[in-house]
Amino acid sequence: MAIKLYKPTTSARRHASVMVTLGISKKRPEKSLIVSGKNQAGRNNQGKITVRHQGGGARKKVRIIDFKRDKFDIPAKVVAIEYDPNRNASIALLSYADGEKRYIIACSDLQVGQTVVSSQKLTELKAGNHMPLEVIPQGMFVYNVELTPGRGAQLARSAGNFISLMGIDNGMAQLKMPSGEIRLVPAGCMATIGTVNNSEFKNIRWGKAGRMRHRGIRPTVRGKVMNPVDHPHGGGEGKNPIGLKYPKTPTGKKALGVKTRNRHLRSNDLILQRRKNKRKK
């Protein structure tokens, strides 16, 4: 895929760019693999807003993605590469030898007509094949990586992402994450060979506020322009600074550069090196 720039026919078009979906081979999704999704607008199961600045947006169907790839040793043919409005990466429609169809996240080298397979032992080391980390050679790029064997992929699933397998030791695999963090996961966790496609997505210039509203992203208001009842930074006359020892969130907790990771998490012992050379605590 590539980024396309238009002639500046309007002030918004002047600063906008779009993604050209050159590899998309099928426009309509597979009916048996879509469900209706409800827009939660950043709310949890109690109706409370846990993520601000979300809501609205274009209506879209949810594609059921197979993150487990648990049909082992059954070859699957790539029938189509499709657009998924719920993620920034493209998806691939697989048709297995027994007739079943499933969606997976497409890698950068996946082509229509190619055959991929998922196996619990070493298979051909080509893009799209799914196998345990313990049988993958060191230094290879993988994506769709599990944190717990059998739970399904949780790591490196967005556009352009990949994880570098650094080595295997004492039944644990050392992974270098996209953030630079180095952590351990069980060597029996499954992963897919390759890198996620659509790596140019980060270079899109959205251009105007309307395109962000179509994505379901609402305006962000600064705390310092609010009233004191609405935000700890609020109040004052004119463009006053925050006026506190440190910035705060709307609920009064420390913000901006403060570590939010729980010091007592069990998985802290699995992190060998924090991202951006942060000290381990």
What tags apply to this protein structure?
single chain; 281 residues; mainly beta; OB fold (Dihydrolipoamide Acetyltransferase, E2P); Ribosomal protein L2, domain 3; seven-stranded antiparallel β-sheet; globular
Task: Walk me through this protein's architecture.
- This protein is mainly β and 281 residues long.
- It has 2 domains: 24-201, Nucleic acid-binding proteins (OB fold (Dihydrolipoamide Acetyltransferase, E2P)), CATH 2.40.50; 223-281, Ribosomal protein L2, domain 3, CATH 4.10.950.10.
- 4% of the residues lie in helices and 25% in strands.
- It is built from 2 helices and 17 strands.
- The protein has helices at residues 11-14, 209-214, and strands spanning 2-5, 17-20, 34-36, 61-63, 76-82, 91-96, 101-105, 115-116, 130-132, 141-143, 145-146, 153-155, 163-169, 172-176, 182-186, 190-193, 271-273.
- A 7-stranded antiparallel β-sheet has the order 9-16-10-13-14-15-17, with no helix packed on it. A 4-stranded antiparallel β-sheet has the order 7-6-5-8, with no helix packed on it.
- β14 (172-176) and β15 form a beta hairpin.
- The two termini are 41 Å apart.
